[in-house]
């Protein structure tokens, strides 16, 4: 994903759990409607996916050539 297309970026590759989850939820709470968040991780965050779905967020996940997980998150349209 192109980081330039995201309004906010969290590089959580070197954070210990639950720091990536907490940082992501804090950032989403502070974002305006229509903004996007790019989360960069070393592994897929399945618990985060469930939480995003429950709270009305949509996301797209891509795995890069070096197996980095990039997740673009935005508020789903209702």
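^ structure tokens above, recovered residues below v
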């Amino acid at each position: 994903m192109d980081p330039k297309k995201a309004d906010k970026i969290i590089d959580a590759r070197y954070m210990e759990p639950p720091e990536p989850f907490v940082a992501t939820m804090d950032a989403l709470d502070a974002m305006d409607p229509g903004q996007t968040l790019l989360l960069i991780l070393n592994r897929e965050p399945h618990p985060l996916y469930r939480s995003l779905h429950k709270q009305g967020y949509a996301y797209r996940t891509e795995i890069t050539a070096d197996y980095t997980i990039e997740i673009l998150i935005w508020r789903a349209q209702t």
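Helices lie at 19-30, 46-54.
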